[in-house]
Amino acid sequence: MINFDFYNPTQILFGQGQIAAIGKLIPPQAKVLMTYGGGSIKQNGVYDEVRAALAGHTVLEFAGIEPNPSYETLMQAVALVKSEGIDFLLGVGGGSVVDGTKFIAAAALRDGEAWDILEKGGKIIDAALPFGTVLTLPATGSEMNGSAVITRKATQEKRSFMSRKVYPKFSVLDPTKTFTLPLRQVGNGVVDAFAHVMEQYLTASVNASVQDRFAEGILLTLIEEGPKALSHPDDYDVRANVMWCATLALNGLIGVGVPQDWSTHAIGHELTALYELDHAQTLAVILPSMLRVRKQAKRTKLLQYAARVWGLDGGDEDGRIETAIARTEYFFRHMGVKTRLADYGLGHDSVDAVIAALEAHGMTALGEQGEVTLAVSRKVLELSL
Question: Which pTM does this prediction carry?
């Protein structure tokens, strides 16, 4: 196991009715900016519950944060924060709203060029406004981590940043608020969480038994509960398990002390920036091909994954590995997420475009050991056609 420094200060309020508690967690004198997306929270009751919980607080609103939140939109919110003297943010929505709120929190206290936050990966963040979140779509884990991904539409760039300054002060996770989600978003969320676990688990082995078992437990739970979330959308226990899986997948716990491989995400981000595919769609396309191309480098962990997650522990090793990858693909499709570039109308031209974007952004040595060169990325993309 590798040395690590684990930090996570986010308070989690989990369960039905927890929104009512947020008023006590925000300083009474705070001037609050409530951020949200396209307005679905006004149709499912979340908006009214949040506003009721904030009675007595001064609250302004900023709506319109997109899926794959855009720098251009978020800078409008930053201007509002500065002009109105906002001193607390509350993001209400899915991972995109939470990511966008993190950027607003950091950019609002910065005098220089805000895009530098993304260019420097968050390393230049010295301070950020405090904020909380009310999560309505479990997927990204952003409600309990210090990372975010932002898109700049003008240049078709999708960049990430991380900082200990942008952990939420608190996050509310009420599974009942996910009952009305479109099934496409439910499936995407499960696939996103699954991929997050895989990129921390299916890497070079360092004998981190606890992290491995935690990761395998999350994967097994997603495999068992994910399809039920589609077939029984009002089942509280199913939604609760899926919601907590998504948080645990990327709150830092399973990633401590182990190598991490975010090459699938890096390639996926370029696909989203160029072609506006859903984030989870890109992961479902790239991850199986990445595992096939890097089969030898990941052989030990792939065999462990095959045995412990899919129950494949007999017969030819290569056969077990391929069956495990094929079952992973089937699981993604079962969740309603297609797994080939052609399924989204993309052909060979997209391969060249993604490789050019990876090169332009310096993504030329990805993976836990820097072995995913542009040539390897090209092979992965071509296998994904």
Answer: 0.96
Dig out the tokens for 100 from the structure.
Answer: 């966008």
Q: Which CATH superfamily groups domain 182-383? A: Dehydroquinate synthase-like - alpha domain (1.20.1090.10)
Q: DSSP letter string over 202-244?
A: SS-----HHHHHHHHHHHHHHHHHHHHHHH-TT-HHHHHHHHH
Number of separate helices (H) and strands (E) present in the chain: 13, 8
- Three-state helix/strand/coil letters over 34-47: EECCCCHHHCCCHH
- The beta-carbon contacts of 337-341 under 8 Å, at least 24 apart in sequence, are 337/187, 337/188, 337/191, 337/280, 337/281, 337/284, 338/281, 338/284, 338/285, 339/284, 339/285, 339/288, 340/285, 340/384, 340/385, 341/285, 341/381, 341/384, 341/385
Closest CA to 159 of 283, 287, 70: 70
Number of CB atoms found within 10 A of residue 7's CB: 10
Q: How far does the chain reach from its first CA to its final CA, in angstroms?
A: 37
**Rg of the chain taking only CA atoms, in angstroms:** 20
String of b and e for 310-344 (b: at least 16 CB within 10 Å)? bebeeeeeeebbbebbebbbebbbebbbebbbeeb
Please give the DSSP secondary-structure letter assigned to residue 70.
B
- Which amino acid, residue 309? V
Strand pairing partners for 151?
70, 158
Confidence of residue 38 (pLDDT cuts 50, 70, 90): confident
CATH for 11-177, options being 1.10.10.10, 3.40.50.1820, 3.40.50.1970, 3.30.70.1150: 3.40.50.1970
* DSSP β-ladder status, 170-173 and 157-162: unpaired
Take residue 231 and report the two structure tokens written for it: 């077939």
Tens digits of per-residue pLDDT, 121-168? 999 999 999 999 999 999 999 999 999 999 999 999 999 999 999 999
> Domain coordinates of the chain in residue numbers?
11-177, 182-383
Task: Give residue 112's pLDDT.
Answer: 86
- C-alpha 309/C-alpha 314 separation (Å) is 14
**CA dist list (Å): 3 to 6, 96, 368:** 10, 31, 16
How far, in Å, CA of 321 to CA of 299, rounded?
Answer: 8
Other C-beta atoms closer than 10 Å to the C-beta of 145 total 22
